[in-house]
Amino acid sequence: MADVLKKATREGYGDALVELGKEHDDIIVMDADLAGATRTGTFKKAFPDRFFNAGIAEANMTGVAAGLASCGKTVFISSFAMFATGRAYEQIRNSVGYPRLNVKVAASHGGISVGEDGATHQCIEDLGLMRGIPGMAVLNPADYYEAKKAVKAAYEWDGPVYLRFGRLAVPVVFDEDCPFEIGKGVELKPGTDVTVIATGLMVKEALDAYEMLKAEGISARIINMATIKPIDRDIIEKAARETGVIVTAEEHSILNGLGSAVAEVVAETVPVPVVRVGVNDTFGKSGPAADLLKEFGLSAENIVKNVKLALEKKAK
Amino acid sequence: MDSSLKKQLAVDAAKIRLAIIEGTFHAKSGHPGGSLSITETVAYLYRCALKVDPKNPHWADRDRLVLSKGHTAPALYGALSLHGFFPESEIARLRKPDSFLQGHPDMQKTPGVDMSTGSLGQGVSAAAGMALAGKLDNKDYHVYAILGDGEIEEGQVWEAAMFASAKGLDNLTLFIDNNNLQIDGCLEEVNSPYPIKEKFEAFGFTVFEADGHDFDSIDQAVTAARAVSGKPTAIVLKTVKGHGVSFMENQVGWHGKATNAEEYEVAMAELKAALKACEEA
């Protein structure tokens, strides 16, 4: 197999910020002493006057961003997903979400693919935390190009947005022309037996699972759901009606993330079985990211396994 | 300060106090104690310090006031209605489902409210952000925030203080309403934040002290704070919780409850007499 180009979604964030910064003077970027890791350092280098380091103080960073936004700035704030959404949850909720300010919480190091740093730094609850805040858009791009598109869409979006990026270099599955619209899922492969709805780095795994299932004569529809909120109800309802069973795949707890969002829509529209692939309500641990992803079942093989389980449920 | 201005301020404060008792009584809830302790400060800011326009509350060059101790919204609402941001009749609808006067300030709903607050410790960060925006845009507006003395037990206050100082935000002034009472008792009983002045000084602020019920004292502190360059400023206000209503003064029980009908009559009679005295002075 030829080498696949790999690039972390956080690289897309850093590059998109610089591109946006050239066009828009209102963009301010803040970080909490992780500018190198989150890639806001790229923006800092290009626009030092519009970059502010809050130091290791995520709560204050979030509040300062709210104040800046109230004065007409569009503010991107970054840290690791754990601290951006966990430590500063209530600041995001009350100082950003409630007043609907133009703050974009752009976090890197989402999920267990953080790797060796272990569970304290592997946030698997962020999508759920952010999804629960009224009016918050929640984006989880799958690759470098989609990440860039997501950053630009977040800038254009009026109001608060959460963006999740990863530390790990992941295969590039899209290109510069990939469609991106907040609130819209994208069907990547047609299929009739089952639908796999994936987000983030699990999109590539779902595409690999598609080929494995095809080899076994199973027709799987693959949907990329980069927007967790507002969730694309239409594409889910259509998939439920046309394929009769859904498998979700995310690098996040199976609680409160993509799987939950999909199950909510399915339960209210076309109730069919939903099987969730994700982190099974457990903490992560230290180890090489690739090994952890395999161990925690965030793989094409485990999607295939769960698709078969789902098909059994469908048959009942 | 000349005597006619001082008289006007006393009248303003008396009217704001009436609004505090009126609003919380009709709402059957709210926070009169800490509202009454910041009344002179709020009266002073809206009459003498804040460059604002009631006709254009979102004016980009205006001064900002963040009520970080958001539960004392009744004092803010009293001042805003007094200065024409909305009709006085709205005060009696405080906390009602169809009113734009929320229990805690809401910038999306209420004209003249610069930041949604209520969760303690958060407003001061927003105020720092506004001050930073002013620096970035080369605007000469000033940002004020009012904090409770119990509120400064929140760690975020000190994160914000560190930030404001590190970024040289001399267009930011914090008031600390030092009435020495918080919900569970006096500050020392709960978790002492003292010494307040020295703490802010250690965080890089220039700090002034004032009698929070004396307009000359407030005026001197604000004037001095505005003259400071290169550093953020703080003004520690010595105040009495419940000030102006005899049975509420220095009583922790009046932190977060409204008067009943009988208490309301007594409080209103006292405040109306005080207003009359000010007007006739």
What is this entry, summarized?
Chain A is of the alpha/beta class.
CATH class of chain B: Alpha Beta
Number of domains of chain A: 2
Q: What's the number of domains of chain B?
A: 1
Q: Output the helix-strand order of chain B.
A: HHHEHHEHEEEHHEHEH
Mind telling me the CATH superfamily name of chain B? Thiamin diphosphate (ThDP)-binding fold, Pyr/PP domains
pLDDT below 50 for ≥5 consecutive residues: which ranges of chain A? none
Proportion in helices of chain A: 40-55%
Looking at CATH, the homologous superfamily of the largest domain in chain A is Thiamin diphosphate (ThDP)-binding fold, Pyr/PP domains
Radius of gyration of chain B, Cα only, in angstroms?
17 Å
User: Which strand order does the major sheet of chain B show?
Assistant: 1-2-3-7-6
Fill in the CATH topology of chain B: Rossmann fold
Strand tally of chain A is 14
Largest interface: A-B, 28 and 34 residues
Description:
By secondary structure, chain A is α/β, with parallel strands linked by helices. Chain A has two domains: about 170 residues, Rossmann fold; about 130 residues, 3-Layer(aba) Sandwich (Rossmann fold), CATH 3.40.50. In chain A, about 40% of the residues lie in helices and about 20% in strands. In chain A, the strands form three sheets. Chain A has a seven-stranded mixed β-sheet with strand order 3-2-4-5-7-6-12, sandwiched between helices. Chain A starts with 5 loop residues before the first strand and ends with a helix. In chain B, helix 6 links the parallel strand 2 and strand 3. The model of chain B has no long low-confidence stretch (mean pLDDT about 100). At the A-B interface, helix 4 and helix 6 of A face helix 5 and helix 6 of B.
